[in-house]
Amino acid sequence: MMSELKKHKFSDLYSMSSGISSKPEQAGHGSPFLTFSDVFNNYFVPDSLTNLMDTSEKEQETYSIKKGDIFLTRTSETIDELGMSCVALKDYPNATYSGFVKRLRPLQDDVTYEKYMGFYLRSRFFRKTMTNNAVLTLRASLNEEIYSYLHLYLPDYKTQKNVGDFLLLLNEKIALNNRINAELEAMAKTLYDYWFVQFDFPNEEGKPYKTSGGAMVWNEELKREIPEGWEVDKLDKVVSIVRGASPRPIDDYLSDEGVNWIKISDATESNNRFIVATKQFIIQEGVSKSRFLKPNTLILSNSASPAIPRIVKIESCVHDGWLIIDKYKDGLTIEYLYHYFDNERPNILNLGNGSIFKNLKTEYLKEYKMVIPPKSILDQFMPIFKDLSDKVYINTLENQQLATLRDWLLPMLMNGQVVVE
């Protein structure tokens, strides 16, 4: 039997408050602080708030965070990113929240269930309601007027509780996989640094090469020492670097289905090395005017947030804000090159130019000098690297499947087509 959805005026169920207007000198010390990024990137307020703000007792009372509070991003460059929600599942003593978000505090008990609301407010149904009521001027902004127009269509409290508790289990598994991936990535990064930055890869006796007195030679191009026998060459002699392409005007070619279309945000919104899904797609007519990628392609962001490496695991297209890295020198692999670019990013960023956004000049990147380990060293290291990379990929793929299942189930759970006992 399908549950009946009841229409509520959002403003009848929650009171809206603005966040704290803090000064730069308050940041970095003091009490826990909920940032715009925390809200934008999480369905629920993180268990521990790592950002700090020096706030008074009065400010902590005025801008408090309590169980059931909803936080919405107040301002954004685009309507699609406006009003992204994040729900508190517990009280956060002494914590305050950013002035770039709005707090919605429940006015009634047993009408909305916080775990359910965390998923409902991120559903396509509610996101469409939000964007339809927003007005884009120079910058999208959530205000009292927009809020007063919004309605919620909710099942009874018991149904909300069953659905919310069930969906949270899926989210907790996703969060667990993310924590495992973070540990695996940290291990891989440490190993890369140990072998290829500190040059303490195992020598013939299995001892750390440089620390054990391995021969080092001065390289005039790099102005530093490198292990004897290692090469240095320009990047374009080691890999092929090709810029993506964009059909114009791009909006005429984007759709809800088609070939995956990778945006810079697909890299910046996640620390994961792999791209296994995209939010947008390009129609077939636009594929030939773009750059088509086969799975297992390394790309490097070239604009907005440049020099971020990502491994694409799906057939997709990329625009001219991406650089495609392929045709590697013998012995190099996609796993090694991912960590190479990730490690070199601070240095590569110095090649950027641009006023509003930093952009990489491809011709400068091609001239960038790369230290190339001997194939024998790479062959020792690659099995370790690939094993860690494969584990990260398995967890990433499982998370994508869980997120797809969650989003597919949500509307059916909301209207009672599927019931959680």
From TrEMBL:
It comes from the Bacteria. Its EC number is 3.1.21.3. It holds the Pfam family Methylase_S. InterPro entries: Restrct_endonuc_typeI_TRD, Restrct_endonuc_typeI_TRD_sf, Type-I_RS_S_subunit. The keyword Ligase does not apply. The keyword Hydrolase applies. Residues 29-186, 227-402 form the Type I restriction modification DNA specificity domain. Belongs to the type-I restriction system S methylase family. This is Type I restriction enzyme S subunit. It comes from Runella defluvii.
